[in-house]
Every structure is written in C-alpha cells, then in structure tokens.
Design a protein that fits this description.
By secondary structure, this protein is an all-alpha fold. Helix content is 80%, strand content 0%.
Amino acid sequence: MAIGLLRVFRLMPLRVAGIVLLFLLLISVRLFERYLFYDPFLEAFHKVAVSIPEYETGRLFLNYFFRYALNTVISLYILWLFFKDKSILKLTGILYVTFFIVLAVALYVVLNMDAPSLKAVFYLRRFLIQPMFILLFLPAFYYQKYVADNSSEEKK
C-alpha cells in the first residue's frame, strides 16, 4: 500500500520526510496550544462543563483565527508536497476561507444566544481549532487522482 502511494504520486524520500515533518508540526500546535493561544474553553471542555466560561470575544476569535490560519498553511503545504498541483491548492484555499467564515460566524451566533448549547460550541470550536479538514481533503484528492489516472489508462 505505502509503496503503491510512493509510486502513484512519485513521492521522493525528501517529500515524504517533509510531509511527516508537517504532520508533526500540526501535532505540535495541538500539544502546545495552552502556551500559544488564548482559549478559556480548553479547561471547560477538559472537565465536565456545565456553563460557558468567561471569555474576551475579540481576543478569543483573534486566537481562533491565528490557530486556524496556522493549521491551514501547514495543511496547504502538506497538500502541495503530496500532489504538486496548484489547482488543488487554489480550491482548498477557497474552501478553508469559506469554512472559517461560516464556522466563525456560527460560533459567534451560538455564543451570543441567551442559552448557548455547550455541544454546539464544542463542535464548532473543534472544527475551528483542529486541522480536521486535511483528513478529508487528502483522501478525497487522492481518490480523484486515482480515478483520473485509471480512466486515462483505460483510454489508451
């Protein structure tokens, strides 16, 4: 399987090392989140939260933006090293920006409700601070490339 991936994408050992290094960087962002970003919800969701903790709206959303941007840049580099395709980067960049706007607005609306849902806050926040979209984009673009490569071979 791994050899098949290397052959299909012509991944050179240096590119593989870069991809591994970038995934380690994503993990590092998660490991050092307490020191890098303001997020009063970290403690609340590690415990059994019964209410929304006190927070500074501007500071919270600015930190969510920085974290999302950092994860996005790292994820885009992973996609670039994996596929070397500008059209994939362009589409993914547009999707990342769109998702951020939708998720940030939704989180803001939920937090400003009279009785905000802890579950809604938890999941919206999770999509903003965790690099989950790379887990969707990599297999999706891999499958797209795989299908395109196989259909071009059948036409020969």
